[in-house]
Design a protein that fits this description.
Layout: E1 8-13, E2 17-20, E3 23-26, E4 34-40, E5 43-45, E6 51-53, E7 61-64, E8 70-74, E9 77-83, E10 87-91
Antiparallel strand pairs: 1-4, 1-9, 2-3, 4-7, 5-6, 7-10, 8-9
Length: about 90
């Protein structure tokens, strides 16, 4: 499994469409920029030397900033590695 460094967060993208043969079926309620947090980095050190721990936890669902992060695919799962500051909200 991937272990994020610093204040990076690993998200597993939620499926927003299902492919049946050559036809793509989209869900009415599209996931968009919603993903599940699967791994978190420990946090970051500020220029002042103060360490700021990550505030997010594995298992939370989050809304993240569009067009940010790095896409990664493994074993048929789609992930995005993103900075904590690019997480806009947590869905409770």
């Amino acid at each position: 499994m991937i272990k994020p460094l610093n204040d990076n967060i690993l998200l597993e993208k939620l499926p927003s469409e299902k492919k049946v043969g050559s036809i793509i079926l989209t869900k009415e309620e599209k996931a968009g920029n919603v993903a599940t947090i699967v791994a978190v980095g420990p946090g970051k050190t500020l220029e002042s030397g103060k360490f700021v721990p990550t505030t997010l936890k594995e298992g939370q669902r989050a809304i993240y900033r569009e067009y940010s992060g790095t896409d990664y695919e493994e074993d048929g799962h789609k992930y995005i590695l993103i900075k904590e500051e690019d997480i806009l909200a947590v869905i409770e």
